[in-house]
Every structure is written in structure tokens, then in C-alpha cells.
């Protein structure tokens, strides 16, 4: 009976670990990016109308991250493709916002490049694992 149980367990452990690590990293990412935006607004001449969109993107990304990670966890653990698919869709939105902060925010420092590149790499790896998990659940 144990063998049958194991062979039918399709949820991905690497995906679960990566979602967990991503959640922790995102908290660090958010605080570091927020601190840098505040720092840049003090050090550089930051036009007020440019500060708002940069902050809005960061907060929108944080709001997206909660359902993105939750649906990823839930979909993987319950072996349901719908929540994982939704999580994958939200990841696309997060990637767009991340690319904005990497390329188009008012001032991009080397630390911004590093933080965003790491986040994009995590998103890419996570997305690949989600696609594989969805394929396993569907088959």
C-alpha cells in the first residue's frame, strides 16, 4: 500500500522549497527596495511625480506576491492545476513589475540590478517547476 501511495504523490518538493525560499527572499527584497527608494529620494533629486509610481509598483508587487505564493503552495500540496495555473499567471504580472524596477524606475543602482536579477531567476525557476507540476497533475 505504501508503494502505491508514494507513486501517486505528484506534488513537487523542489517547488515547495523554492516557494518557501521565495517568500522569505521577497520580504528581504521588499524591505531592501523600499529602503533604497527612500535613500534615493533623499540623496538624488527625485521628482515627486516619479517617486509615486516607483513606490506604487513595489507595493502592487507585494500585494500580488501574497496570492501568488499562497496559490502556489495550495496548488502544489493539493495537486490541483487550477491554483498553480493562477499562481503562474500572477508570476507573469510579478515579472513585469520586477522588470520595471530593474530597467525603468527613476534611479537604478547596482543593488537594484542584483536584487531584481535574483528575483527574476527565482521566478523563472519556479515557473518551470510549476509547469512541470501542472503537467504531472494533468496527466
From TrEMBL:
Keywords: Cell projection, Membrane, Transmembrane, Transmembrane helix
Bilayer topology: Multi-pass membrane protein
Record-annotated membrane-spanning stretches: 17-39, 51-70, 82-103, 115-138
InterPro entries listed in its UniProt record: Uncharacterised_TM-17
Keyword Transmembrane helix attached: yes
UniProt cross-references to Pfam families, sorted A to Z: Transmemb_17 (PF09799)
Locations listed in the record: Cell projection, Cilium; Membrane
Main localization (coarse): other
GO biological process: non-motile cilium assembly
Keyword Transcription regulation applies: no
GO cellular component, one term: ciliary transition zone
Name by which UniProt lists this protein: TMM80 protein
Species lineage: Eukaryota, Metazoa, Chordata, Craniata, Vertebrata
Gene that encodes the chain: Tmem80
